[in-house]
């Protein structure tokens, strides 16, 4: 077993809504995050990611279960490790009229971080040149990177980012991804939650997939992809609409891809061609696509999280 930055066992949290309804947000979550590298914490909206992160950070109390951060039971011994943890759970507040650098200098002074750290963290988040510009002129991606820079001030070993790319354009998403990859490569542990697999697949070393507050799969990206028994195939067929109807009725997930169809969850491609041929629909091209995390995710979380 590798060294773990985070470990939870049987973690559980129930909310009571104002109308008296009970919502089980996290139900018996077992999560292991190895030390070093980027770990994707993945699940559909409402699957319990934010709730789990808030419990780990001691922001809300768990109903049951155990958690450790760097082998210390939390929340009991959180004070011993809190200095090694940086998190962005909600967007921090910065002064709009001050530059990014000035904002960071104020924060550094408040937490007792050396002033030269500010230059380092601006570099680490590729904000170096724009550090002297006013915060209010920053793009959303730059604001988010400044938030990451702020968490880096105290040089934490574990960084926790809850949906850091929400609302960003593709360029902003790429910048955040590169920042996370850089941190992982330096030996930091980065836990990043997301409901969008494509974003995390490219950057994560290991992943945990959750649904309805429970662990559905975990391991290296290759292990999780390899664990699926089915694959995605790309097919060319003249009447795509009719083919979609036939395949959907057979329980397969069909997506349009230009003049082709992508069919997820295929066990035997031959069966698919036979099914279509039975309806006088003839496949003129069939290419098995490497199983990707997206199709594994869709399979694992089918029907999950739509509370
Ligand atoms: N304060 C609360 N009171 C009542 N129910 C809540 C509260 N916070 C979260 N929930 C419910 O708990 C479940 C898990 O929510 P949570 O925010 O942890 O999921 P998530 O995976 O982070 O989703 P998202 O990606 O949408 O943030 C959802 O059904 C949500 O509606």
UniProtKB/TrEMBL annotation:
Source domain of life is: Bacteria
A single GO molecular function, which one? Answer: ATP hydrolysis activity
| Keyword list, A-Z | ATP-binding, Nucleotide-binding, Transport
| UniProt cross-references to Pfam families, sorted A to Z | ABC_tran
Gene3D superfamilies registered for this protein in UniProt: P-loop containing nucleotide triphosphate hydrolases
**Matching InterPro entries, A to Z?**
AAA+_ATPase, ABC_transporter-like_ATP-bd, ABC_transporter-like_CS, P-loop_NTPase
Q: Where is the ABC transporter domain?
A: 6-237
Family the UniProt entry places it in? Belongs to the ABC transporter superfamily.
| Name of the protein this chain belongs to | ATP-binding cassette domain-containing protein
């Amino acid at each position: 077993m590798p060294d773990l930055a985070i470990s939870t066992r049987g973690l559980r949290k129930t909310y009571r809504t104002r109308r008296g309804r009970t919502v089980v947000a996290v139900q018996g979550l077992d999560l292991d995050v190895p030390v070093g590298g980027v770990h994707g914490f993945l699940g559909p909206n409402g699957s319990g990611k934010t709730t789990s992160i808030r419990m780990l950070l001691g922001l809300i109390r768990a109903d049951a279960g155990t958690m450790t951060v760097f082998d210390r039971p939390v929340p009991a011994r959180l004070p011993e490790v809190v200095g090694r943890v940086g998190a962005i759970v909600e967007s921090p507040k910065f002064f709009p009229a001050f530059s990014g650098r000035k904002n960071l200098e104020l924060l550094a002074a408040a937490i007792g971080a050396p002033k030269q750290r500010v230059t380092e963290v601006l570099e680490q988040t590729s904000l170096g040149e724009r550090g002297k510009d006013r915060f209010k002129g920053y793009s959303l991606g730059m604001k988010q990177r400044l938030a990451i820079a702020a968490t880096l001030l105290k040089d934490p070993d574990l960084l926790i980012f809850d949906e850091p790319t929400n609302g960003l354009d593709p360029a902003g998403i790429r910048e955040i991804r590169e920042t996370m990859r850089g941190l992982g490569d330096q030996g930091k542990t980065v836990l990043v939650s997301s409901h969008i697999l494509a974003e995390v697949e490219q950057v994560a070393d290991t992943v945990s997939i959750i649904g309805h507050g429970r662990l559905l799969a975990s391991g290296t990206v290759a292990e999780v992809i390899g664990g699926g028994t089915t694959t995605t195939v790309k097919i060319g067929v003249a009447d795509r609409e009719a083919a979609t109807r036939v395949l959907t009725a057979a329980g397969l997930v069909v997506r349009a891809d230009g003049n082709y169809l992508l069919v997820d969850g295929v066990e035997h491609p031959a069966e698919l061609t036979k099914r279509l041929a039975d309806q006088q629909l003839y496949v003129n091209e069939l290419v098995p696509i490497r199983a990707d995390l997206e199709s594994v995710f869709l399979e694992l979380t089918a029907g999950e999280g739509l509370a």
